[in-house]
Structure formats: C-alpha cells, structure tokens
Amino acid sequence: MGAQLRVYKRRIQAVTATKKITKAMEMIAASRIVKAQRKVAASMPYATELTRAVTAVATGSNTKHPLTTEAESPARAAVLLLTSDRGLAGGYSSNAIKAAERLRERLAAEGKEVDTYIVGRKGVAYYGFRERKVSESWTGFTDSPEYSDAKKIAEPLIESIQKDTAEGGVDELHIVFTEFVSMMTQNAVDGRMLPLSLDQVAEESTEKGEILPLFDFEPSAEDVLDALLPRYVESRIYNALLQAAASEHAARRRAMKSATDNAGDLIKSLSRLANAARQAEITQEISEIVGGAGALADASAGSDK
C-alpha cells in the first residue's frame, strides 16, 4: 500500500510541475495577443487606402495591367498557406491546412494546377511528410512577423504572376490564413489577392458610402500600377501575417488554459486517490495493531491457565 501512495505522490508532483508550465505559457500568450491586435489595427488603414488607390488607378484608366486583368482561361494558381512555427496551439495550424486543402480541391475542380507556398514549420512538415511539392517556404517568424517578412514572401509570388504560364507563371494568387475575430473566435479563411477584383472593391466602397478618388497619372497609369501593386500584395500578406499571429496566440492561450484546467482536475483526482490509499494504509496498520494486541492478550491468558 505504501508503494501505491508513493506512485500517486510522484504523479501529483509531475502534474503540478506541468500545470505551472502551461499556466506560464497561457499568460505569455495572453500578453502577446494585445500587442498583435494593435499591429493588426495599425496595418488596416494603410491596406485599405492602398486598395482604394490601386482600384482608382485601374478603374480610372483603360490600361489592362496583368495584375488586374482576368485571364481568359486561367490554368494555374498559386496558394500561400500561413501556419505556425510552434505547436501547443490546439487546432490552429490543422484548421488552416484543411482550408488550404479545400481550396486546392476547388481549384483543381476548375481545371487549374496549384503551386503551393507555405509559411510556418507546421505546414512545411505536413507537406514534407506527404512528399508534396512546395514551391517555396518561410519559417521562424510566425508569432511576431515584420513587414520585411511580408516583403520577402511577396517577391516570388509577384514574380510568378507576372510570368506567362508557359514559363512557369500563374494566373491567380490566393492566400489561406486564420482571421482573428475575437479572443475566442478565429476562422481559417481563403481569399484571392490577384487579379484584384475591381467590381468587388467598388461594390464594397459603395456599401460603405465611400467615393473612389480621381487621379491624374504621371508618367502613365501602367507605371503607377507597376509601382502600387507590389505594395498592395505586400500589405495584404502583412495584414494576413498579423491576423494569423494574433490568432495563433489566442489559440495557444485557449489550449494552455484548457491544459491548466485539466491538470488541476487531475491533481484533485489524484489527491483523492492518494488520500484513499493513505486511509486504507492507516486502517490496515490499525487492524494489524489491534490484531497483534488481541493475539498477545490471548497468548497471555493461555499462559496464566
């Protein structure tokens, strides 16, 4: 019985140590969410105004730019998937991967080949384990991305969509990331970045009561688009990276809180088992003492006769 009690005590000590770790990780994640949310909010005005400027240039001129013009028969698409570098975040990365798989199936059903670009070790590991081709990948910054990271990611994607499909280029550029809605809600979503849907942007601006500005273009509308569209792609990717980072921290906080709560419940359960084992051990010791005293009394009475 003493051995069983020692087992319970060792397990309680181990779970208590784990609970301290998960609690610390929960607090760290909670503190990082606030910073990530501020970055998301700060990036939104720039991305919104840049989108409006690009739309105004494209709609205010007769220029047919390759980054705003739909291909007649799109045959190839690039998909950028944002996952995390680290685990212990519940279903954060797996949900994004599932969304990318659904998008891939949808594009394949439309007769398009898919080139995959991945951010985060979890996504890289998923595709690597299944021996799937990845055009390019980036790791090491998912929990705290900088604009330079977005610029690094955007470069090969822009280069790819500017090429002809016969030369290995793509007709469309899609992105899959986890949208931060609230501390409790994060949704894996996909969206098309390029070609830019001018009708959709104009419709959204009309719904918001916004009026697209009119510009004069120097030296030409095409040159302006050449300068603006890379910045547009970079800003969209950067905003997605920031939302993904906030979502990752929120998911990790929620997962670590659940782990901490479960550890507390397990400690209570083990403590009850340890108390029961201790009580059984004491009861057995008392029984042995009483039994021994009775045996001695009987032996003493027999010797007196």
The chain-level structural class is: alpha/beta
| Shape by Cα distribution | elongated
- The share of residues in extended strands comes to 5-15%
How large is the radius of gyration? 31 Å
Number of strands: 5
User: Total number of helical segments?
Assistant: 6
CA-to-CA gap between the ends?
A: 39 Å
Helix content: 55-70%
Give the overall pLDDT as a whole number: 85
Give the strand order, joined by hyphens, for the main sheet: 3-2-1-4-5
- Helix and strand string, N-terminal first? HEHEHEHEEHH
**Low-confidence blocks of residues:** none
Report the sheet with the most strands, covering strand number, pairing sense and barrel closure.
5 strands, mixed
Secondary structure layout plus pairing:
Elements: H1 2-59, E1 76-82, H2 92-109, E2 113-119, H3 121-129, E3 136-138, H4 147-162, E4 172-180, E5 186-194, H5 198-207, H6 221-304
Parallel strand pairs: 1-2, 1-4, 2-3
Antiparallel strand pairs: 4-5
Helix pairs in contact: 1-5, 1-6, 4-6
